[in-house]
Amino acid sequence: MKPKIALQLWTIKEAMAADFAGTLKAVKENGYDGVEFAGYQDFTATEIRHLLDENQLEVCASHIPFEKLSEDLASIMAFERTIGNRRIVCPWLSFDNYQDWKAAFATLDEIGKTLTEAGFEFYYHNHAHEFAEVPGIDILHYLTAHTSYVKLEVDLYWVAKAGVAVDEWLLDHAPKIGLLHFKDLTADGTESTEIGRGVLPMKDYLAFAKEYQLPWLIIEQEAFQQYEPVEASRIDCDNLTALRDEVYA
What we know:
By secondary structure, this protein is of the alpha/beta class. Helices cover 46% and strands 17% of the residues. It has helices spanning 13-18, 20-29, 45-55, 66-71, 73-83, 98-117, 139-146, 156-161, 166-172, 202-211, 229-247, and strands spanning 4-8, 34-37, 58-63, 87-90, 121-125, 151-155, 177-182, 184-185, 192-193, 216-219. An eight-stranded parallel beta barrel has the order 1-2-3-4-5-6-7-10. The termini are close together.
């Protein structure tokens, strides 16, 4: 089966802040099957579930900061169950030495164990700094080696920006990879752009998703050269859908 396509709502955060309900409707109109949350604009879980049902959108995952995960996991799980989500993602950690990272691994694994036992999946989402913050150490590799309950949501753009051979890295860590973030890289290598307008080999990444039967392809864009974010996200969805249909034919 073809994977569904979701939008990481950080892509259109200004529109979401200005008109949460109207922007979710636009996401559906732009062709998406689901969304990945990065905040809820003070809407209740019941209100969000109503809006998702109204627009026939699923939740593929939610980004929730490490600090919140550490404070009140029971409330988070209750909220996420109500909106129909079963995948929780820690979106960011940063430490300048390996010992602090290793301590964080233990905490992440404790959080992951609790979530897993409650029927959730738990992920860590990377940027580029995990490959360079501690010289000579690929933090994501050590994360996979030192945790049992943490999967990876791999942001392909940031792996490429870190100067890593993406295809090889994906294969080396495939057992721990459950979600992928798709965003393209401008030809000058400076920032993200619409899928299909950049230089990253999206078909290769889709072939990996197909081989490992990943359920969702998640689009994110953080820089905009020509289009406003909502319009850019439509182009992203159109182009990734066409590439997906080609690779999965």
